[in-house]
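Extended Data, record Probable chemoreceptor glutamine deamidase CheD
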Amino acid sequence: MFFAHREEHLISTLLGSCVSVCLWDANLRCGGMNHYMLPLWNGKGLPTPKYGNIAIEKLVKHLLALGCRKGDLVAKVFGGASVIDLSQDLYSVGERNIQLAEEALKMNGIPILASEVGGTQAMKVEFNTKLGSVLVRKVVRQDWVRLPLPEGNLPKRT
């Protein structure tokens, strides 16, 4: 997912191991945000923005089409948490998502001005496309609700 606009919009997303990159041009007061689940598209299927390398490329291109200059863009990066205990996973999806964001932004010459990445808590991120401001709220695990499975009419396993 990605969204960018020259007018003011408040964009929000909820992140666990996913990462969001917010890009902003202070001269045009224009910005956008993406949200991706996996770091790299492997060349199979559609190159959708659920992959970091595609999401960042599309966001940059969209902002350039809106009149931004790449040299004026700055980034803020969020997410990449390990919200599920996978102690046997030595290199989590969240960590790979963070690394991809940092590398892609460096390759594009876009500095990261702020970031809140890693950890074990999910977060809600709100980005203002006109002001470039970001509000981050951590999601506390006690707030999570486990819904019971419906009884009866469950699909049969074959």
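Summary. The two ends are 35 Å apart (CA to CA).
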